[in-house]
From TrEMBL:
Domain of life the protein comes from: Eukaryota
Key words of the record: Cell adhesion, Cell junction, Repeat
Subcellular location: Cell junction
ARM repeat locations: 35-68, 79-122, 335-372
Name of the protein: Catenin delta 2
Family stated for the protein in its record: Belongs to the beta-catenin family.
GO biological-process terms attached to the record: cell-cell adhesion; dendritic spine morphogenesis
Compositionally skewed regions (Low complexity) per UniProt: 508-521
Length: 668
């Protein structure tokens, strides 16, 4: 019937196939075996619009769901992706454009098709959908036009597709960064949504997650990062270290203290070497991007967007290249530290995990470290499980990855800062850390125990504080006995059974610090951290190496610089497709699994797989527009879900909120 001479028969046959295969994977497989996918792809070049509509609807259902990856590959082998691109180029029918981008969104959840989709569709999706629908070329937009553009389902589908494929590895990120107009349009969508109800929309969420993925390993993967010279890097690091550390000793004795480099920027005054406004790829790392991210973090109630924005800042603040230094200063200048600290109180495990690792990267800046230790220590300690706090249910409910992230942040904050170590003791952190480290794996996983032990071991290095510890009833046994195996374990190679995603240690010559992928949910492994923080040894770093499709978590040592950074790996979506506009009964939204989360890099966020594909629809009985609105965004089987309430679910930990007084370094 699909080959019938009458277009009306072909259209009805395709529509009936769409109806038959709705929710039935067996029928979908049978249609593939009977050659139905090839016939439907052939109909995409038909002359009749109604045939296009029915064929796209059937294909969308056929390639919905992770269980139907064979159908997705079959569609690609039949030349389906180029056919969809041709149809998207020539059609002006809004519904068909929505269907075509929906098919592409479903296809993008298959790892094997991510690079082919980038090769065939990136330019078309950018120039024919994202740029026109974002309004970037026509900016400034009128207020009434913003809502219309951001509620566009075509834009939502296109950004959902690119969100998935942005986790396909280094080559995918390179192509997307170099795609003219893509970064500008994505940022414009975010900026024009600020202050409106669209800030919590799926489109904004997709844009944030794409930008987070593209912010991953910028220093190592871009020409600007690779061309950064050793002298320039040394000057920036010396500028951050300050004081005695500004004079470093080399093979021939102490180097003379250089004059303040023009490249050093502390967040005040004009930015060095930035005479022209940033554009294109430069916008990914320019400090001006900090403000939109911070606005999202302070105003948005979509937990996935919050996690994505925090992860983007985490990626940008990772490492030691010039722009990472600038980003850390810009966050302080824009009063971003209190915003991040406030989000530690959110009752959402993934958000707390992302924010904690972002704070850890921010603490690489000496002044940020002082401010975090002074004003955020209590919030960090309250996120640790244990202690005498009667209202500690929220902390107990946190995942091991989040607890590990908090411990690693504490570890960075007290490194080379005795006042912060004392603040940790004053906040009651020792009791909780000792409780974790002495649990022997009964209550906490080995990585959590090691993370807590690492913090305690570093606290013991401050001899001037030992009298205070002993006055509180603590002895050396509480600080170092439990961490006696850390150094031994550090020498041991990683076991493949240790975590689901461990990759070999790599050292980045560009960052001069190694980074290892660890997913948003699979946080920090501490095997590469040295026990003595006074040395120039390594700190745990997060870096995404997989590229990639599944969550990866590796730890690496920071070489030479002694600076630990955390990168968040590819920010990909869930492993399953999303149902939108489903005509039949909609299942209750549920939290998706996180197995496809890419890792956090050395304080750099990651490119996680956003395998949130589009939807599966029954043909006929098309619901009215009101029903579309009702169902949209209800369920996502991906990393991100769409059913968070408008109000932020703050944790009910029993402690008072600190009022941050004005400080010389502009905390508030």
């Amino acid at each position: 019937m699909l080959q019938h001479q009458f277009p009306s028969v072909q259209s009805n046959a395709a529509a009936y196939l769409q109806h038959l295969c709705f929710g039935d994977n067996k029928i979908k497989a049978e249609i593939r075996r009977q050659g139905g996918i090839q016939l439907l792809v052939d109909l995409l070049d038909h002359r009749m619009t109604e045939v296009h509509r029915s064929a796209c609807g059937a294909l969308r259902n056929l390639v919905y769901g992770k269980a139907n990856d064979d159908n997705k590959i079959a569609l690609k082998n039949c030349g389906g992706i180029p056919a969809l691109v041709r149809l998207l180029r020539k059609t002006t029918d809004l519904e068909i454009r929505e269907l075509v981008t929906g098919v592409l969104w479903n296809l993008s959840s298959c790892d094997a098709l991510k690079m082919p989709i980038i090769q065939d569709t990136l330019a078309v999706l950018t120039n024919a959908v994202i740029i026109p629908h974002s309004g970037w070329e026509n900016s400034p937009l009128q207020d009434d036009r913003k809502i219309q553009l951001h509620s566009s389902q075509v834009l939502r589908n296109a950004t959902g597709c690119l969100r998935n494929v942005s986790s396909a590895g280094e080559e995918a990120r390179r192509r997307m960064r170099e795609c003219e107009g893509l970064t500008d349009a994505l940022l414009y969508v975010i900026q024009s949504a600020l202050g409106s109800s669209e800030i919590d929309s799926k489109t904004v969420e997709n844009c944030v997650c794409i930008l987070r993925n593209l912010s991953y390993r910028l220093a190592a993967e871009t020409s600007q990062g690779q061309h950064m010279g050793t002298d320039e890097l040394d000057g920036l690091l010396c500028g951050e270290a300050g004081g005695k550390d500004a004079e470093s000793s080399g093979c021939w004795g102490k180097k003379k203290k250089k004059k303040k480099s023009q490249d050093q920027w502390d967040g005040v005054g004009p930015l060095p070497d930035c005479a022209e406004p940033p554009k294109g790829i430069q916008m990914l790392w320019h400090p001006s991007i900090v403000k939109p991210y911070l606005t999202l973090l302070s105003e948005c109630s979509n937990a996935d967007t919050l996690e994505g924005a925090a992860g983007a800042l985490q990626n940008l603040a990772a490492g030691s290249w010039k722009w990472s230094v600038y980003i850390r200063a810009a966050v302080r200048k824009e009063k971003g530290l209190p915003i991040l600290v406030e989000l530690l109180r959110i009752d959402n495990d993934r958000v707390v995990c992302a924010v904690a690792t972002a704070l850890r990267n921010m603490a690489l800046d000496v002044r940020n470290k002082e401010l975090i230790g002074k004003y955020a220590m209590r919030d960090l300690v309250h996120r640790l499980p244990g202690g005498n706090n009667s209202n500690n249910a929220a902390s107990k409910a946190m995942s091991d990855d989040t607890v590990t992230a908090v411990c690693c942040t504490l570890h960075e904050v007290i490194t080379k800062n005795m006042e912060n170590a004392k603040a940790l003791r004053d906040a009651g952190g020792i009791e909780k850390l000792v409780g974790i480290s002495k649990s022997k794996g009964d209550k906490h996983s080995p990585k959590v125990v090691k993370a807590a032990s690492q913090v305690l071991n570093s606290m013991w290095q401050y001899r001037d504080l030992r009298s205070l510890y002993k006055k509180d009833g603590w002895s050396q046994y509480h600080f170092v006995a439990s961490s006696s195996t850390i150094e031994r374990d550090r020498q041991r190679p990683y076991s493949s059974s240790r975590t689901p995603s461990i990759s070999p240690v790599r050292v980045s010559p560009n960052n001069r610090s190694a980074s290892a992928p660890a997913s948003p949910r699979e946080m920090i492994s501490l095997k590469e951290r040295k026990t003595d923080y006074e040395s120039t040894g390594s700190n745990a770093t997060y870096h995404g190496t997989k590229g990639e499709h599944t969550s990866r978590k590796d730890t690496m040592t920071a070489q030479n610089t002694g600076i630990s950074t955390l990168y968040r790996n590819s920010y990909g979506a869930p492993t399953e497709d999303i149902k939108h506009n489903q005509v039949s009964a909609q299942p209750v939204p549920q939290e998706p699994s996180r197995k496809d989360y890419e890792t956090y890099q050395p304080f750099q966020n990651s490119t996680r797989n956003y395998d949130e594909s589009f939807f599966e629809d029954q043909v006929h009985h098309r619901p009215p527009a009101s029903e579309y609105t009702m169902h949209l965004g209800l369920k996502s089987t991906g990393n991100y879900v769409d059913f968070y309430s408008a109000a932020r679910p703050y944790s009910e930990l029993n402690y008072e909120t600190s009022h941050y007084p004005a400080s010389p370094d502009s905390w508030v």
